[in-house]
Amino acid sequence: MRTWHIAELLEVSARYLAERGSSSPRLDAELLLAEVLAVGRVHLYTQHDRPLTSEEVDEYRELVARRARREPVAYILGRASFRYLTLRVSPAVLIPRPETEELVDLVVGWLRAEAHLPARPTDSAHLPARPTDPARVPDPAHAPSPPPGAGPVPARPPDVGPVVADVGTGSGAIALSLAHETGTSVLAVDVSEDALEVARENRAALALEELVELRRGDLLEGVAQGSLLAVVANLPYVSESEYAALEPDVKDHEPGGALLAGDDGLDVIRRLLPQAATVLRPGGALFLEVGESQAPAVAALMSEAGFGNVVVERDLSGKERFVHAVLEKAHR
User: Fold this and answer.
1) Structural domain for 293, as ranges
2) Theoretical Cys-Cys bridge with 162: which of 90, 132, 187, 276, CB 3.0 to 4.6 Å?
């Protein structure tokens, strides 16, 4: 029986994955082998001539076969990295994207400037560096964690209730990041019970039960009028035509209900805007992630719904990806 070594098995596997459409075949091959061996990716280079057991090779082949069928690496490993957190993910939730990390940056900046949040141990200056792996999946041996003694501390008394809502929370990435980094109390809403179960596991793993309330619901229905400082949402915004053209990694594996939003991709956003105008306090802010061609239409819809100071922000790739605005007066 042939004995495989790390370097040659990676070379063969990367070539195989490239032939089957992976956009990052070498990275995929490395992440999967690092998972099997329970090591960091750097180990694959420092120990490139290490022989592998038949059991390790068999386990690795199973994972590579799944990736060859275009199953995302994050789903295969069951986790993804988002800002300073490592989150469990499953096909019940979207895999968190780097663009959404930028959305959280905007909200964190606004909360600190407008809500005058106190400095706290988990402010970004004291947090570990964010993972930079383009696959958004941390090495099993190098998952980031908060520094000792930097547990979440509520910014407001617990009886005040949530002051920020994350609508369509999925894995809880946005809500948990906001609570973890700022101490803000957050209401995380999703229509999917399966998604909320994933968010519950992530909330428990991060010990954020006191700061993050999880609720099953349709957008902001049932939230008290004028109760929130901010609403943030990465809602479905893919049109029917765009969905048909998505890569198999997304279309065949990620939940369609978290992606599709009608003929122009704005159906869910249209429903959210009047609700947000009702639940926000005067001066409260709404933050949305949108499709790269949707920002002008969304900005116009925000203005029609009673929001002012509407701003379109570009992501790091230069695309108009975020729209945020302030509620100028109480909704009537």
Assistant:
1) 92-327
2) 187
